Amino acid sequence: MDWLEIFVETTQEGLDALGGLLLDCGLTGFIVHDPAEFHDFMIDPERNWDYMEDGLAQEQEAHPAGITFFVRDNLHGAETLAAVRAQLALAKTREGGVDLGSLEMTMKNVKEEDWANNWKKYFKPFPVGQKLYLKPSWEQLEDAQGRMVLQIDPGHIFGTGAHETTRCCMEELEIFVREKDRVLDVGCGSGILSIAALLLGAAHADDVDIDANAIDVVKENMARNGISPDRYTVTAGNILSDQALLDRFRGQAYDVVTANIVADVIIPLTALVPQMIRQGGIYLVSGIITDREEEVKAALTANGFSLLERKQEKDWVALASRYEG
User: Fold this and answer.
1) Is 34 exposed, middle or buried (0-12, 13-18, 19+ CB in 10 A)?
2) Average pLDDT over residues 300-325
3) Distances from the Cα of 44 to the Cαs of 50, 54, 56, 63, in angstroms?
């Protein structure tokens, strides 16, 4: 199977933070490019080699600081790239702290405009849980096996449903969503979770994502599934840093709040959710690598949530909790 090579540019001081971000997105193998470290290596009098290809030293020292990682050229790789892109966009909005530089992401061995459509050949209809059948908008589905069909086209935004984190969250929605529920989806991406909730009986969903492109993508996907505009809203912004946006959702007493993001976002978000969820409301979080699970559980406990259920697929964990106040 082919691999895609991706490079993310940052500053020398931003390398550790960028590495942590990539780890939270499930990437465990990457190459760190640190020009300063290479320079130190070159002037080390104890180095044990005496030949280097012409121009390589100059090329390495001129190479910007950053990290190269690889993803498979398939649907899972597309989801991983979308998740990384979303977290890079979020990192750019954070004020203070380490200078992360441009965080520009470059595809090294394929043109991005080609990949934007090529990955679709891997996306085929498949069942999720006991009630839903997920179908890309461009595919035909002859037999839904008596399930509700959810049509989706994520564009370049996270949310095909193929990733373990999304599937786990959709399975939790099937268990916990009730008729007439009001749902808030933070980091909505393509809108897949709120669409699933509405198909499962929820009355209304509010979506929010840091990527402004999500607005059009969510609207298009809602229309594909026959969901009228009066049953949802979609907003772009960072609920962690935008007080006006937070005020929009504060006091709404949602029955269900979902967040399929990463631990570094879920943990501070969990401190805000009590302002938005009703007593006894359900809080579903996913996108958590197993190494960060205990930190998320601690945040849930500290903010008045009791753990109801845990799901795990591969190295990813989803947690369902109830707000006890």
Assistant:
1) middle
2) 97
3) 12, 19, 17, 20
